[in-house]
Design goal:
Blueprint lengths: L5 H8 L5 E2 L10 H8 L8 E2 L4 H16 L3 H20 L3 H14 L1
Parallel strand pairs: 1-2
Helix pairs in contact: 3-4
Length: about 110
């Protein structure tokens, strides 16, 4: 299974930051995992992120940002990623429209 209890168990055993990413399931789409990770008792903090791939990407960025408070190389890597991401979004502000246009273009050929 998704073992949604693991971030909480880990957080109860360490004073280091713990980031929890709920795994998307077929039955409940990961909502059960999200609630399991987010509903920790006071004193056992878990940084809970989004369900699935987006949450995993954000967990990596958050971890790099945390490390960036002490290590310039991590800080610069996050800055570079965010700058490139902004450039991609500005170059293609409506990905759904671009995908639809590409699909329509492909049907004409």
């Amino acid at each position: 299974g998704g073992a949604a209890h693991l971030p909480g168990m880990t957080a109860s055993k360490t004073v280091l930051p713990v980031l929890g990413v709920p795994v998307e399931s077929k039955a409940l789409k990961g909502l059960d995992a999200l609630l399991s990770i987010a509903q920790m008792p006071g004193g056992v903090p878990v940084g809970t992120l989004a369900i699935g791939r987006s949450g995993a990407v954000n967990a990596a960025l958050l971890a790099a940002s945390i490390l960036g408070t002490k290590h310039r190389s991590f800080r610069e890597a996050v800055r570079k990623f965010r700058t490139e991401q902004t450039g991609r979004v500005l170059a293609n502000p409506d990905p759904a429209a671009a995908a639809a246009a590409q699909k329509k273009k492909g049907k004409r050929v």
